[in-house]
Design a protein that fits this description.
This protein is of the alpha/beta class. The protein is built from twelve helices and eleven strands. Helix 6 crosses helix 9 (291-300).
Length: 393
Amino acid sequence: MSSPSTRRPRKVAVVGVALSDTGRVDDATPYALHAQAARRALADSGLDRSVVDGFGSAGLGTLAPVEVAEYLGLRPTWVDSTTVGGATWEVMAAHAADAIATGHANAVLLVYGSTARADIKAGRRTSNLSFGARGPLQFEVPYGHTLISKYAMAARRHMHQYGTTVEQLAQVAVQARANAAANPDAMFRDPITVDDVLSGPMIADPFTKLHCCIRSDGGCAVLLAAEEYVPDTAKSPVWVLGSGTAVSHTTMSEWEDFTVSPAAVSGRLAFERAGVGPADIDLAEIYDAFTYMTLVTLEDLGFCAKGEGGPFVEKGRLLRTGELPVNTDGGGLSACHPGMRGLFLLVEAVRQLRGEAGAGQVRKPDGRLPSLAVASGTGGWFCSSGTVVLGRT
């Protein structure tokens, strides 16, 4: 037997993915959505729950992920509760892949669930304008610098510096809705136009309502496992080829350039470690809390040059049938956004690579299934980023 110092790192695959009920779910708790998604992901993998020795969860419970693991009846020996906003799940997937590759875990289950919409409708919570007023944020919150205003300020800087137009930003929402039309699980599927986006109620200049993600209920789960489990799985594996993580800032005053997100770092690392480049990617699943987030992340991942995101998105490239299909399920702008949406990006990327997206399936120009996908999550107000490259081979 080889020694630990010479043993080859194990390959890691995503072997199970699933959604819980999503959209409008008025009769379930967040714990129930976690359990539903976990059961479905395990069923999708064909593996028994006894193989799961690693668990990742965030956003629920006083002792996350201990409470959720207990609710699911799991006793993991490897856990992660990293919480960095929307990028949480790509960062957790990177951690899980590293743990499996080095033998610290064999199969890691990542689960998320939220009833963000139902809770507001029932009066169990209110909408939040900021993440709080303690620590460094105390210097911004008293002046009305809300969460959405931070994104709006960054978008305005990009518009000023590069000539990006609000019509170009609106194209991101229009194309996301067009992709959602083919997704039966999407919360909103009716077509919208650029004029529809521009004429909506103003939320934070330049963002009208349709520039912003929807609020939904829902959950999902992803099971990653070591290569030796793959022969026993029910579906073809989707391999984790490379990943990268990065953080940038908390206060806006410490953000060096409003037109550059930490995806510029996490993306570069993920592509380098995967041994591929942006030109090799068949589809991208990108966190889209706001239209500007999609545009600037496309630039930072290298799909177009800095400042050219506006012209890049306005030519229909993001459509399921476009040059670079993006957010093929409709994304957070149209499909679902229960909170920290990053795990949904991984689920959709895996389904596309497997050829399981039904009417929303992406295909190469020659009709073949896509081979490579990238999922890139963003947290906070461009404070953190996690990028994962996935492939069928």
